[in-house]
Design goal:
This protein is an all-alpha fold. The chain contains two helices and no strands.
């Protein structure tokens, strides 16, 4: 299989990557096992992105709360 580059820096890139993978599987360009492995990785990355976003929001709220005090 040819080497592919996948972008996963943010949720939008992960969504585009998943769409690309689904199309590759549908067109017979990638086997299901490889696609499942990539999808599993994408889900882990999305979880990390969500956690980072939540922590950023918590930090911002704590900063606002401290300014109010």
């Amino acid at each position: 299989m040819a080497q592919i580059r996948l972008k996963t820096k943010n949720a939008t890139e992960v969504r585009r990557t998943l769409t690309r993978i689904m199309n590759m599987v549908a067109n017979g360009e990638m086997d299901n096992k490889t696609a499942n492995t990539i999808i599993l990785g994408c889900n882990a990355i999305l979880s990390s992105i969500r956690t980072d976003d939540q922590q950023k929001r918590i930090d911002e709220l704590e900063k606002i709360l401290n300014q109010i005090k």
